[in-house]
Specification:
The protein contains ten helices and eight strands. By secondary structure, the chain is α/β, with parallel strands linked by helices. The chain folds into two domains: 210 residues, Spore Coat Polysaccharide Biosynthesis Protein SpsA, Chain A, CATH 3.90.550.10; 70 residues. The protein has an eight-stranded mixed beta sheet, with helices on both faces. The protein is elongated, with a radius of gyration of 25 Å. It binds uridine-5'-diphosphate (UDP) and magnesium ion. Uridine-5'-diphosphate binds next to strand 1 and helix 3.
Length: 308
C-alpha cells in the first residue's frame, strides 16, 4: 500500500475532560493502520481548559495539530475550518466525545482501499440518544428527504471518511451557512456504509439543546429545499377556492332567503383563520429572507485566532 496521509478532523468546544480520553483511544488505532497521520483539533472558542489539554496532549503524541478559532462559531463552522486546513489524502471528521468508536477507522480504511470515495458510518443502535432526540431526528430525516433535492442518509452523522477528491468538491461550495450533512450529500460520489452502535458520551455534556437542534433542523431544511416557500402558492389556491365556494354559498343563501343572522361567528373565524395562515406564510418568508440577508453579507464562516 502506498503512503497515504490520514487526517482526523475533530472540532472541540469545551471538552476538557475528553481530550486525553480521545487521543489515547484514537492514536493506537492510527498506529496500527501504519500510515502517516495527523489529528487536527479545531478549538471552537472553548472557554474551559480545552486548549491547555490539547497542548498537553500534543506533548505526548506527535502529529497533533491545534487551530483555535477566535470565538465559538458552532460545530458546522469548526468542522469547515478543519476540512479547509486538513492536509491528508483521506480525511476523517470525528467527534471528540467517543460516541463514534475509533475502531470505525479500520473499516473506513478497508472500504477506501476497495475504491470508495466516501465511507459513511450509520448508527444502527441509537439507544444512547434520548427517546425524544431519536424520534425528532427520524421525523427530520423523513421530512427533509421528502422535500429536498438531496437525500441525507438516515442516522448518519458527520463521522465518515472522504477522499481528497471529495474534499476538493466540498470546498467549491461557497455558502457560509454550512449545513455539513447536506453539503456532504450534495457533492455525490460513490459511498459505502459501515454500521455501528452509537456509544454514550464518555465525559462532558452535549452542546446541542432542544432549541439549538430545532434551529439546526431549520438550517438543514432551508439550506436544501425551497418547498416551504413554494407550498404557499398551493395553500393560497386551496384557501381561495374554499373561500369562493363558501362565498357563493352565502350569496345564494342571501339572494333567496335574505339576511338571517349577523354571522358574527363565521366572520370572526374566517378572519382569524386567514390571518393565521398569512402570518405563518410571512414567517416562512422571513426565515428565508433572514438567511438570504446573512448569506449576502459574505462574511467568512469562521475566523482563526492561531495555529498553535
Ligand atoms: N462542537 C463544536 N462546537 C460547538 C458545539 C460542539 O465544535 O459549538 C463539537 C463538540 O466538541 C463535539 C462535536 O462538536 O466534538 C459534537 O458535539 P456534541 O457531542 O455536543 O453533539 P451531539 O453528539 O450531542 O449531537
Ligand atoms: Mg456527541
Amino acid at each position: 500500500m502506498k503512503k497515504t496521509l490520514i487526517s482526523i478532523v475533530c472540532p472541540v468546544y469545551n471538552e476538557e475532560d475528553m481530550i486525553q480520553l480521545f487521543t489515547s483511544a484514537v492514536v493506537p488505532v492510527l498506529t496500527q493502520i501504519n500510515q502517516p497521520y495527523e489529528i487536527l483539533f479545531i478549538n471552537d472558542g472553548s472557554d474551559d481548559k480545552t486548549l491547555d489539554e490539547l497542548l498537553k496532549a500534543r506533548q505526548g503524541y506527535d502529529n497533533i495539530r491545534i487551530i483555535s478559532l477566535s470565538k465559538n462559531f458552532g460545530k458546522e463552522a469548526a468542522l469547515t475550518a478543519g476540512l479547509d486546513h486538513a492536509k491528508g489524502d483521506v480525511i476523517i471528521p470525528i467527534d471528540v466525545d467517543l460516541q463514534d468508536p475509533p475502531d470505525l477507522i479500520f473499516e473506513f480504511i478497508q472500504h477506501w482501499e476497495k475504491g470508495c470515495d466516501i465511507v459513511l458510518a450509520k448508527r444502527t443502535d441509537r439507544s444512547s440518544d434520548g427517546y425524544i432526540k431519536r424520534v425528532t431526528a427520524k421525523w427530520f430525516y423523513k421530512l427533509h428527504n421528502q422535500i429536498s433535492q438531496i437525500e441525507i442518509p438516515d442516522n448518519v452523522g458527520d463521522c465518515r471518511l472522504i477522499t481528497r477528491k471529495v474534499l476538493d468538491a466540498i470546498k467549491q461550495l461557497p455558502e457560509n451557512q454550512r449545513f455539513m450533512k447536506g453539503i456532504f450529500a450534495w457533492v455525490g460520489f460513490k459511498s459505502a456504509v459501515v454500521h455501528y452502535k452509537r456509544d454514550y458520551r464518555k465525559a462532558g455534556k452535549t452542546s446541542f439543546s432542544g432549541w439549538r437542534l430545532w434551529n439546526f433542523a431549520l438550517d438543514g431544511i432551508t439550506s436544501f429545499s425551497t418547498v416551504p416557500l413554494r407550498i404557499w402558492l398551493y395553500i393560497g389556491i386551496i384557501v381561495a377556492l374554499l373561500s369562493f365556494v363558501y362565498g357563493s354559498f352565502i350569496i345564494i343563501l342571501t339572494l333567496f332567503w335574505g339576511v338571517k343572522t349577523p354571522g358574527f361567528a363565521s366572520l370572526f373565524t374566517a378572519v382569524l383563520f386567514i390571518g393565521g395562515i398569512q402570518l405563518i406564510g410571512i414567517g416562512v418568508l422571513g426565515e428565508y429572507i433572514g438567511r438570504i440577508y446573512m448569506e449576502s453579507k459574505r462574511r467568512p464562516t469562521y475566523i482563526i485566532d492561531k495555529e498553535h
